[in-house]
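A quick aside before the break. I want you to see a complete sequence-to-structure record at least once, exactly as it would be stored in a machine-readable document. Don't worry about memorizing anything.
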Amino acid sequence: MPTLLLYECQHLVREAVANAVRHGQAGTITLDLASAGGALRLAITDDGQGFACPPPHPLPATLATRAAALGGALALETGSGQTRLVFTLPLDVP
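That is the input. The structure line, written in tokens, reads:
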């Protein structure tokens, strides 16, 4: 994994976990990291309250911007009792 990608993943995880605890009041957070086809997939799932606003839920701006700056994307799945952020990031970051 390129050093820049490792650095950015650390920041993505730190912010996502802080958001889950602070805003979602999560008690359990799980991370799943895998690579396939030249991309890194980082999934962060929590058991918090989910997003209060109705669908379509806006993506967390800072996390989405950071993923986009790396040439990747962020997907959000949320409902009562669970929120899942899935980052797909290229392994060959610029």
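Two observations worth writing down. DSSP finds two helices and four strands in the chain. Residues 26 and 48 are 4 Å apart (CA to CA). We'll return to this after the break.
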